[in-house]
Design goal:
With 108 residues, the protein is mainly alpha-helical. It folds into 2 domains: 44 residues, no CATH class; 62 residues, no CATH class. It is flat and about 45 Å long. It starts with a helix and ends in a 6-residue tail after the last helix. The model has no long low-confidence stretch (mean pLDDT 91).
């Protein structure tokens, strides 16, 4: 992530130096392990539909933003890229369906 984007999210470059070093070395697992939860929480939203609704309405929209870029975690890509399997992670298609039914349908 470029320094300007890190700054925008309130993250000092030295906070992610171990993550970057691991990525440069091609060690995705080590990079993920080196990513502090507090940093991940500044960059991503994960959880239940209630978690998403709360974040969108109480944090995101409340700050004056009205568009969001949403991406999903493809279990296949996660396994292929990082060698990680997350128990209970729905398929990409199922994640999109659930987001539409349980999150988007609740927003006006």
């Amino acid at each position: 992530m470029p320094p300007a984007l890190l700054e925008r999210h309130g993250i000092a470059p030295e906070e992610v130096a171990p993550v970057n070093e691991a990525f440069v070395a091609g060690d995705v697992r080590r990079a993920l392990a080196a990513t502090a939860d507090a940093i991940a929480d500044r960059l991503v939203v994960a959880g239940t539909s209630d978690d998403w609704l709360h974040w969108l309405t109480e944090t995101y929209f409340a700050s004056g933003l009205d568009h969001a870029l949403v991406s999903f975690t493809d279990p296949f890509t996660l396994r292929a890229w990082a060698g990680i399997q997350v128990e209970g992670l729905p398929s990409l298609r199922e994640q999109i369906r659930l987001f539409g039914e349980r999150v988007l349908s609740q927003l006006s």
